[in-house]
Amino acid sequence: MDTEIWNEFSNNWDKLAFESERLLAQKIGKSVEDISEIEISDLPKTGKERETTVKVRVNQNFFRKTVLAAYSFKCCITGLDVPELLNASHIIPWSKDEVNRMNPRNGLCLNAIHDRAFDRGFLTITPELTIKVSKSLKQFKNDAVQDFLLKYDGLAITLPNRFIPDIAFLKYHNKNVFRI
What we know:
This protein has two domains: 1-70, no CATH class; 73-180, no CATH class. 43% of the residues lie in helices and 9% in strands. The protein contains seven helices and four strands, in the order ααααββαββαα. It has a two-stranded antiparallel sheet with strand order 1-2.
């Protein structure tokens, strides 16, 4: 039965994320907005728009918690372990793959600087799970670029304890986002 349930949900991460948070909220007697730390004042008052907004925010929070936990709350490039400075980065951008938005294999735990560089294509993770830094950064001759980015070129990332990045997602990022 466990396998059957896992297969059902692992084929629909969106449904898994929201349903798990809804069930947790029900079990502890709170609203899904409360356990997902959604600011109620930011939500539309009623209706379908409110429902959609709540689901998106709950799912984003679920994705973040799942990815960060998989990486033991440490940046996979630097090892930084300050949760407030960590992001759950989408390998294939959120806007480009609706099916895998919540799939934790489409996520990396990155600190804020490396998350931004990854999103902008200044660095990528190869299918061999190593860091590749864009040659376009080599034009900057200051110590900060060297210390924050260039020194990681060619190094292996720290792997998560579960939900290893999907190679197909990494290939997508290398081909479509990364600036050679």
